[in-house]
Write a structure and sequence with these properties.
Elements lengths: L15 E5 L12 E7 L2 E7 L3 E7 L5 H10 L8 E3 L6 H7 L2 E12 L3 E5 L2 E19 L5 E9 L14 E8 L5 E3 L6 E2 L14 H11 L6 H13 L7 H7 L8 H13 L9 H7 L9 H4 L9 H10 L5 H14 L5 H7 L5 H15 L10 H6 L1 H18 L1
Parallel strand pairs: 9-11
Antiparallel strand pairs: 1-4, 2-3, 2-5, 3-4, 6-8, 6-10, 7-8, 8-9, 10-11, 10-12
């Protein structure tokens, strides 16, 4: 029996409704995954780190309970698998595990006869397709002027379709099998529809450096979808080189009418430590309606570099009170990882957060930076949920007593 990924189509425009989040993870580099359940009611993701996180995409918030129930009991029989969380793309790791990384234009696609297979107990038809690609740029490996990519497509809409069409320009991450036999090196991150604009001065650079330069040049493209993909890939270069040219290209995108593109531009500039240029981040987040929170999800997932400058720290403290739950959660958890006392006043305020799991993370932050880690001040999650009001009051009393002693 074969297990394959479930479709996450139109994930850029999905509405994310959080029903539960609690993370004990202190490792900001840990890869986050999710189980996906797709159906006419929406899409359910059961995010896994050290704990379970439930996030759902749905046409109606009333369906959340049903989705979470189905994710819990029906996943094994409904074509579910593990997919990366938006914002967790790691280009360096993807580059390392790929034998060939190249961009080009799809010239033609040839299909074989369909075959029937069993997928998680469901019989589906699949077709082997071979796309002939005219080479544009080679970042890693060796290919000729043209190369062929083999992939499967399925007649079941719940299975991820690595869809490419003749005439499309894409960046491919490929595995080399037998000579001339290239296939996707990753189930999810294998081909990206990037801008064709390229930097002609980087032909002799390293693979990552050349790709980053081309992606930066592509930010000037008029196609919004391609610009968004370029920004997503730039965020995926974890050890990206500080680039004044990137800052120059990204700043105008802060005012893009597409919420996701503007949010990605803020995330890129945050990573570049261009703090003066993103001083309007809080105002931007305030302008995004809560029902469009999905547009800032990738920004939320890129707010915690391994080290924070003072400017980044202050901005995180400022947005830890955002109206967007995904932003508050990321800011609180990142501040907890940094273990700095500078955020104590902000975390005291977050004890009253409408989301009890963010409030619990704030409580854990306070207990860790103050050293008050007894059960009286830092209980486990079930105890906190049962006696939240009393614990919040205890910490506020501690704050008042501490201020009186100063």
């Amino acid at each position: 029996m074969e297990k394959l990924p479930v479709s996450t189509s139109a994930r850029r425009r999905q509405l994310w409704v959080t029903t539960q989040f609690y993370s004990r993870s202190r490792d900001s580099s840990s890869r986050r995954y999710s189980h996906v359940l797709q159906g006419p009611w929406g899409t359910c993701r059961d995010f896994l780190r050290e704990d379970q996180i439930h996030m759902c995409t749905t046409r109606s918030a009333l369906n959340v309970t049903l989705l979470v129930f189905l994710c819990g009991v029906a996943t094994p029989s409904l074509l579910c698998t593990v997919v990366p969380v938006p914002g967790s793309l790691d280009i360096s790791a993807l580059m390392e595990k790929s034998d060939v990384v190249a961009s080009g234009t799809v010239q033609s696609i040839v299909s074989s006869e369909p075959e029937v297979i069993t997928l998680n107990g469901v019989r589906v038809r699949r077709v082997l397709r071979k796309a002939e690609v005219l080479t544009w740029r080679i970042y890693k490996g060796v290919v000729k002027d043209k190369f062929t990519v083999s992939f499967y497509s399925y007649d079941n809409p719940s299975v991820i379709q690595p869809a490419i069409k003749a005439g499309q320009f894409a960046l491919f991450f490929l595995h080399q099998g037998a000579p001339g036999n290239l296939s996707y090196s990753d189930d999810y991150f294998a081909r990206f529809f990037i801008s064709k604009l390229a930097d002609p001065t980087t032909a002799s650079s390293g693979a990552i450096e050349m790709l980053q330069a081309d992606l930066i040049e592509g930010l000037a493209d008029a196609d919004h979808d391609q610009v968004g993909t370029n920004l997503e890939l730039l965020l995926g270069i974890k050890n990206s080189i500080k680039s004044p040219h990137l800052i120059h290209r990204a700043v105008p995108l802060l005012h893009n009418r597409d919420t996701r593109i503007a949010a990605l531009a803020y995330a890129v500039l945050f990573k570049q430590c261009a703090m003066q240029d993103i001083s309007g981040l809080k105002s931007f987040l305030d302008s995004v309606p809560v029902e469009r929170e999905g547009g800032v999800l990738e920004l939320a997932n890129n707010l915690c570099p391994s080290q924070l400058t003072d400017g980044q720290l202050q901005l995180l403290i400022e947005i830890s009170g955002s109206k967007h739950r995904v932003i508050r959660n990321s800011a609180v958890n990142c501040l907890r990882q940094m273990n700095t006392r500078a955020a104590v006043p902000a975390m005291l305020a977050r004890l009253d957060d409408p989301d009890p799991y963010i409030a619990f993370s704030a409580l854990k932050y306070l207990s860790e930076v103050t050293g008050l880690q007894s059960e009286e001040y830092s209980p486990d999650l079930p105890t906190f949920l049962q006696n939240r009001d009393g614990l919040v009051q205890k910490w506020k009393s501690w704050s008042a007593a501490t201020n009186n002693r100063r």
